Amino acid sequence: MEDKKARIIQAAIEVLSSKGIEKTKVSDIVKRAGIAQGTFYLYFPSKLAVMPSIAEVMVQKTLSYLEKNVDPEAAIQEQLQVLIRTVFQLQNEEREKTALLFAGLASSEYLKEWESIYAPYYKWMSTLLGKAQARGTIRSSLDVNRTARLLIGIIESAAEQIYLYDQIDEMEAKVQTDELYTFIKHALGIEVL
Amino acid sequence: MEDKKARIIQAAIEVLSSKGIEKTKVSDIVKRAGIAQGTFYLYFPSKLAVMPSIAEVMVQKTLSYLEKNVDPEAAIQEQLQVLIRTVFQLQNEEREKTALLFAGLASSEYLKEWESIYAPYYKWMSTLLGKAQARGTIRSSLDVNRTARLLIGIIESAAEQIYLYDQIDEMEAKVQTDELYTFIKHALGIEVL
Amino acid sequence: MEDKKARIIQAAIEVLSSKGIEKTKVSDIVKRAGIAQGTFYLYFPSKLAVMPSIAEVMVQKTLSYLEKNVDPEAAIQEQLQVLIRTVFQLQNEEREKTALLFAGLASSEYLKEWESIYAPYYKWMSTLLGKAQARGTIRSSLDVNRTARLLIGIIESAAEQIYLYDQIDEMEAKVQTDELYTFIKHALGIEVL
Amino acid sequence: MEDKKARIIQAAIEVLSSKGIEKTKVSDIVKRAGIAQGTFYLYFPSKLAVMPSIAEVMVQKTLSYLEKNVDPEAAIQEQLQVLIRTVFQLQNEEREKTALLFAGLASSEYLKEWESIYAPYYKWMSTLLGKAQARGTIRSSLDVNRTARLLIGIIESAAEQIYLYDQIDEMEAKVQTDELYTFIKHALGIEVL
DNA sequence: TATGAATGAGGCTTCATTCAT
DNA sequence: AATGAATGAAGCCTCATTCAT
């Protein structure tokens, strides 16, 4: 059943976030999933093959958070604020997960799947920008699809840096996100009064 | 001799870029470096211990390119253009290297060293921004240090995406970099006439 | 039904000849037989347990060919010629089968069944020799039962060698079989004028 | 050192003869050889890769026995008697070895090496026949090279049958070898008075 | 009688690291 | 400082067999 596949993915996410890709063994995953070692291979051809599924789940999670939190009718400024806050918060919650995951994906042959996994995320962001552009609240010169990627890229990269480089200092985090917010506001040509 | 250490690092870079972290074996590295298996351990305590050195070398390379190409006296617009072009070009040349490297670092315990390795890169960028700010060609409201990180983050992320997701299509690459350039110009508050 | 058992044996023969004993999996066999994995075990207690059945089928096949081709009334010379030709031809058709089969049997605990499987083959050959001896066309000093085994042994061994060691060269094959024929003719004391 | 390779082969022979190919594990071999598991793979690329070496050693052993026992100056009759006795005796001593080995070889990809491994054995036999032919004690019509193969084939096949099918009954064994001897004597056209 | 998902023991192999030379 | 043969722990995966349906 699909249920078992889901359980494997869930178990893999959990193990991965606590042990890191290098040290995650299939035996750990199956133990946590409560299945036999061989069963794993009924659903995934190899250890690395779970990675894309994990990424997918995580992107979905991010998206569902965003859809829940970001009011489609709100002003772009508020949307951005919520967006940034949500991504940072998720990044913070998931801690190692994102980095480890990327590491996992990068070291697998599944690197190329990244694109399709991120597709819904990009799409959501494009739509957001599209509406704002229609309303005239962001500059008309930008291309919504390409800018969607740039935005996601910069927000995630900023979020990663906070985790990676800084001790998580509430104060500093706040200042960073403000800087990021202002950066983006200007980039999008949002009127700053 | 230090020469041997350098040879190991160089060999490691080469092997890593062609095989990926997961499949890079110490035996490959030493073979390419033309030394004996045991010799590796005279210079590095473990396989993962080369990673930071590799990152350092690559950051240095990027920096030296930037220092050579970016005219400190030029207008910020031109500096940005050159900056973007250089990073994209390097990313393209190095292909998998960056991603694999990050993966390598991420999966090692050396993740935390990323900060210090990138320090000179951030510093260079800060200085660039600082000068522009002093000249009044970028908005005074931005914090040069934090913005330096954001800039490096977005440029690298954009460059990675081009390699990862798109077939490398000259035309599309051009459009992407233009979009990025405009994005940044706005973000920095550079006067667009 | 017995039909299903036969289908399993047939499938096993086919898989075995193309993949070799070591690489033949029960899953391959059932796939080819068009049945479920578990069904196999309703007809055979273990994987190795098909081996004797396979051998039996192949011996039967050989025998039926021989019975069809070798004229019981013909002169022993002609009978031998046909015999050799038939075995060589089968060996050639079946290619790896014989060797692989023997390997399969040998590596199983079923080695001892070989005797009973070959029994009808030996019997046929004994009868042939017996008649010739009664007619006085082969030497009276030979023991028909033991000689039957020797004959089958040498013919099969020669046939295997042709397949295994030599490139299958029509010309050489002809010369080999001639040499074998002459060898046997002398061994049996058939008058050579 | 070559010494270690030899030790591995020796250990493999011993383990193989007592456990059979299917049940022989690399771990058994290295344990008996007194080396580490990994060391095995410095000398052989895989478990199956020892098989040809084993076969080689066994052919060499047979040959050395034959060279020691068969008097090159003796009459062909006596040479044959000794030859048969020696092969049967070896077969008996080695018991499972030969069968298991063949099984091992057959189930490996090394089947084709059989030819080169047997080459010295064939050569020795050809020489023996050649001398006898020169002396005029065997029929001039036979081809020494091809007949050498036939002879080795029939003797080995007969020897195997004794082990495989019959309880080892001294009396019967004697009768079998006599029958074989007579068979061969006729086949070679040796004068029987 | 038939199914096929699930099992789980266990082997082969890899490869980072060591150490005697 | 350099070597490279030897080590051996450890993990991925296979696949014969079982069993609930």
TrEMBL record, chains A, B, C, D:
Residues 25-44 bind DNA. The keyword Hydrolase does not apply. InterPro entries: Homeodomain-like_sf, HTH-type_Tx_Regulator, HTH_TetR, Tet_transcr_reg_TetR-rel_C_sf, YvdT_C. Keywords: DNA-binding. The keyword Isomerase does not apply. GO terms for molecular function: DNA binding. Residues 2-62 form the HTH tetR-type domain. PANTHER family: ACREF/ENVCD OPERON REPRESSOR-RELATED (PTHR43479), TRANSCRIPTIONAL REGULATOR, TETR FAMILY (PTHR43479:SF8). This is TetR family transcriptional regulator. The lineage of its organism: Bacteria, Bacillati, Bacillota, Bacilli, Bacillales.
